[in-house]
Every structure is written in C-alpha cells, then in structure tokens.
Amino acid sequence: xxxxxxxxxxxxxxxxxxxFARLELLKLLSEHERIRVKVGPDYADSAAIAxxxxxxxxxxxVQPQGDEINAIKTFLGAxxxxxxxxxxxxxxxxxxxxxxxxxxxAPEYMEILGSQFMAHPPICRFEVKxxxxxxxxxRGVDDFWVEDELYLADYAEGNHVLMTTEFEGKATGFVRxxxxxxxxxxxxxxEHSGGEVMYLTLGHCxxxxxxxxxxxxxPYMERCSWNSPTFYELLRxxxxxxxxx
Length: 245
Fold this sequence. Notes:
Blueprint: E1 5-13, H1 18-29, E2 35-40, H2 46-51, E3 54-60, H3 67-77, E4 81-85, E5 93-94, E6 100-101, H4 107-113, E7 115-119, E8 124-130, E9 144-148, E10 152-155, E11 160-170, E12 178-192, E13 195-200, H5 229-243
C-alpha cells in the first residue's frame, strides 16, 4: 500500500496575489491522491518543514531565519526535493527615492536556493528557450513565448540550467537598473545538502489589493504565465518531480 506524501506549501509575502497562487497550486497538488498538504505563510513551522516529503514555495520577500534555515537543511539532508517558484529568492527594500533595492541580507538562504533576484524590467513578452531537452522537466517541451516578469538574478555555482531567456536593457525602478546582454535562468535544478532544488522563475500574479503598501487599489489584474498552458505543464511536472510520482 502506497504511503501518503506530505507536502508543505509556503505561500506568502508581498506585492502578489498570494490567494490566487495558493489556490492554483493546491488545485494542482490535489490531482494526486497520495499528496496531503500543510500550508503556511512563511517558514515558521520548522518542525513540519523538516518532516515533510516535499517543499513547495511561492513567496515574495520572505526569508527563513535561524532555526528555519536549519529545518530546510534537515529537509534537504534527508534527500528530499524543493520546488521553488517565482519570488522565493527575493529580498526587497523600497528606498526613499522610490527605487527598489535588493540587498544581499540572506546569503545562506540564497546559496541554498542557488540564486538571488536582483531586478526585472516592466512586465513584457519574452521567449523562453529550452537548454536541456533530456531532463524530465523539459523533455518534449518546445521553446515558448510568455508575458511575465523577466527575472534578472545573481547565481551561485552548481546550477544545472534547463531553460533560459535573454535580456539587455533597463530594469526601470530598481537600483540595479542597467543590464548588459546575457542569458538568465528561467528553470534550473540544483543539488544541495543531499537534497535537490528545482527553481522556476515564472508565475507573477497581482490583483486590486496587492500593492496596498504603495497604492490603495492597483488598476490591473495581472496573471502573466498563469495564462500559459506550458507554465501549468511545468508546474505539474515540478510537482511530480518533487514528489517522485
């Protein structure tokens, strides 16, 4: 008899429609009868994370500290898998001059993840290219176009990049504004502490009340890659990969 698979989903943070993302991820997780889910807005339930079979995260500007980092290391040290999405690797600081800084104040966490978000240009349409056609996450997936936040990041050593996009230009509104032409990872795999991380940068979403820190009502409904069938296929594959299904 197959055992249940314990998933801990961290869905929380700023400037995004976390309610929407949480619901969509729970729908996808519910497609598998064996998966049982606990949900938290951050990493505070260290015991549950350390004991989980799978970790899935959709956050923005949420960083684990102290015992929470140790729980993640315990989780990975047991050979388990973490599916990290969109803003999981972000640290944001709004400055008095209106710019957004991305200070490197959580180096251990970002080293585990394998990257730290630095900036993005305004939401735009860009091409995602498959770099490794043989991996379970990408096999049979063609290059595709998507409208989303194009994540620009600094990367740790040791990432196996599966999908990329290319950018040159200005990330308006960020301290690190000017970017030379380069490839940036959209999907990568990383081994750490005996476990594995799969990072997918796509998936921005925002609704009317998700920028209350800046404006009373945001005038647009942004769903970005959540409108893309390919994105949902990658999420489904990521869940199967993480849960070994």
